[in-house]
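Phosphatase PAP2 family protein, pasting as requested.
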Amino acid sequence: MQGISIASAITVVLLIWLGTLRNPFKAAYLFIKELLTSRKFLLLFFIMVCILLANKYELNIEESMNYHKDFTPWVFSMEGHFVKHLQDFFHSSYITPISVFFYVVVFQSLLIASVGVYISDQNKVFVIATCFAIIMNYAVAIPFYLFFPVNEVWSYPPSGVSFLMLDVFPNFEQEYRPLSGLNNCFPSLHTSISVTMMVLGLRSGNRRFGIITTISAVVIIFSIFYLGIHWLTDMIAGTILGLLASNLGILFAKKSLKGKDGAMLHQPSNMLNHL
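C-alpha cells follow.
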C-alpha cells in the first residue's frame, strides 16, 4: 500500500497541475486557508470525512449484523455472461496494468484533485458541490452494501470471469480488500464517483479538467468490467447515482452560497451546464 500511496500522491499533484496549469502546492495552501476561514466549508468537510470513515468501518458493521442475504444469483440471472464476454474480447497484457492503475490510483486521486483544482480556480460553488456529492454518493451506497449485498463478478463461479487485478496487484486481497468488501458491489461507487467527477468537471467551466475527468471516467468504468469486479447492473445504478449526486451537489452549493461571497463565485457559462 505504500507504493499505492506514493503513486496516488504523485497523481494528485499531476492532475491538479494539468487541470490548472498552476503550482499544485498552492492549492493545498488555499484549501487550508478555506478550512480556517469558512465554518460552512469546515463543517461540510468534517461531514465528508465522517461518511468516508463510515464506509471504511461498514465491513465491521456488516459482520456484527445477523443478515445473510445474497442477491448475486438474481443479478446473474438478469445479465448472464456480459462481463465474461467483454473481458474475453479485450483481454490483453497491455490493457490490464492500465486498468489496474486507473481503478486503484486514479480513482482515489481524482477525489482529492477535484477539490484542489476548484480551490485553485477559486470556484467555491464546485468545491462545495464536490464535497456534497461525495457525501451523497457514500450515504446512498452504504445502506445498499449492508442490506442488498451483491458479490463481485469474479467470485461467483457461474460467471466464468477471472480476477485480472491479481495479475498486476497480487497482494490486492491482503492490502486493499479491507477497504472494500467482496459483496459491496451494488451500486458501483467506482462508477458513481467517476460519473460525479466527470459531470462536475464538465460543468465547472474548466474545459481542461472536464476532459481529464471524462477520460478517467470512461477508463475506470471500462476497468470495473475488464478486471472482473462489477456487474452491468452495478454500473447502471452507479451512473444514476453519480448523475443525481453531481447535479444535486451543484444545486446545493449554489443555494448555500447565494448572496454570499458573490465576488468569489465562478459561474461557468458553457453548453454543458444542463448535463
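Note for the archive: Residues 2-64+71-264 form a domain with the Vanadium-containing Chloroperoxidase; domain 1 fold (CATH 1.20.144).
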